[in-house]
Here is the input.
Amino acid sequence: MKKSIILFIAATGIAVSLYLFPSLYGNVIMKDNNQPADGLSKLWIGKRDLRPVKPLDSEITIVKIIGNSHDLFLNVGQADSSTLNSREVNRYRYYIHQDTLFIEMKGNGNLFVETKDKIKEFIIQNTNLRVVCQGEYPALKIALDQQTRANITSSEAFKGAFVTIDSLDIKAADESVINLAAIKAHQIKAQIDNAEMNYDSSLHVDTMVVALNGRSTVKSSNHTEEQKVKNLTISGNQQYFKKEFAGKGVQIITKP
Here is the structure.
């Protein structure tokens, strides 16, 4: 038998076994009740601390997510104790330094983070991310770069219960895009550097101040509808900003 045929059969066998029996190769398979689906999955969890729910002993106020163009759904809540929860235990690595929770994505995934104290800042790099929050935040910072795509919204928007943020500070760079929806805010300050900021008619904000640099813009994703942004102040490079895309009912002030 030719060597090429043998190699083809071997490669096919490995691919089939990986598909049918992923736990043979160190992948953990979880049931709906967050228990390992088989003996090998249980073994890997024991050897590599791949528990679905991980306690976070430190006080967490900053979450930094590092991806490689991965898709991530992140649900953020508050509880009596801080935990990181995901059934997809193979798809991320985490560690804590001071008050920052670092999450390094190894694949697409879903994560639930609960903290005793309110998160004050999200730092997002090279990730396609949907963050759903709940409750009230006196202040929140969001920074994204390296072509990140981030959707920030409320976890209970379908009930009409929006997350409330008194002061929201946004920095977006490196061809990143941030989308805001189902948020109530007193003020939003944004620095958009070769990036894009979008909102829709479910964003309620009294004052939004946006500084544009490079090939940047801010606009409504449903600009033909009446908006809940009362005042929008634009400064910096306005070459790519179009007033007509800010949406109906938005009072626009432009500055150098």
Summary: The chain is about 10% helix and 50% strand.
